[in-house]
Amino acid sequence: MARILLVSPANQRAGVPLPALDMLPHEVVPVRGADAALSHPGVADLVVVDGRADLMQARTTCQLLVTASQNRVLLIVPVASLPVLTSGWGIDDFVVDTVTAAEMDARVRLLIESTPESSALVAGPLTIDDASYTATAYGNSIDLTYTEFELLKYMVGHEGRVLTREQLLSDVWGYDYFGGTRTVDVHIRRLRAKLGPRLEHCIQTVRNVGYRFSPVRTPDGAGENE
């Protein structure tokens, strides 16, 4: 039997029953909001975030929990919300609100039994550690804002791939962000400045397309900093 922390929206007066979870023999501890989940004194085997009533709050809750805790996170979402899920949510798995008890049991069991992988991304002298939320270069800490860290982590995680500005906006800022692609350019310039002259070339501009992270300089000029 597992101990599950069930996180509902902070403004939800009473928990909405989830039959697939209620039918299982696990101990379910309900809390409301990310703050309550993070400050909860007990030890949980798994955190389940209920995103059925407030998807945007659920997204923020997932990101906060993944950043500040070591628990695996399972998200519950309506079927209609599946198109908006991205890697930027930080979740380990998800189920739709029509999930059966058998499937929920299997998802919970697999998440609990699986061994967490290292949270660190390494690209040459650059290390991005999601667990401690730190970025280091040549062993020295890089002072990054939340968005700068998420942007650098996403680019390092997709090393060698050309990422469009629109893709970066969608996966790092979220589909609900209403700013323009100019925001990406501004954050890229700041990242390059913080990486310094030894590493700024790693973030390469691909003209008329977007950006690419690569520790190797490209000979064709596509990786020039602009």
Oligomer status: single chain
Share of β-strand residues: 15-25%
Cα gyration radius (Å): 20 Å
Low-confidence regions: none
Instruction: Measure the end-to-end span.
Output: 55 Å
**Which percent range fits the helix content?**
25-40%
Mean pLDDT across all amino acids: 85
Question: What's the arrangement of strands in the largest beta sheet?
Answer: 2-1-3-4-5
Question: Number of DSSP strands?
Answer: 12
Categorize the overall geometry. elongated
The main pleated sheet reads as: 5 strands, parallel
Order of H and E elements: EHEHEHEEHEEEEHEHHEE
The count of helical stretches stands at 7
Describe the structure.
With 226 residues, the chain is α/β, with parallel strands linked by helices. The chain has seven helices and twelve strands. The strands form three sheets. The protein has a five-stranded parallel sheet, sandwiched between helices. Strands 6-7-8-9 form a four-stranded antiparallel sheet, with helices on one face. A three-stranded antiparallel sheet has the order 10-12-11. Helix 5 crosses helix 6. The longest helix is centred in the first third of the chain and has 14 residues. The radius of gyration is 20 Å and the shape is elongated. It starts with a strand and ends in a 13-residue tail after the last strand. The mean pLDDT is 85.
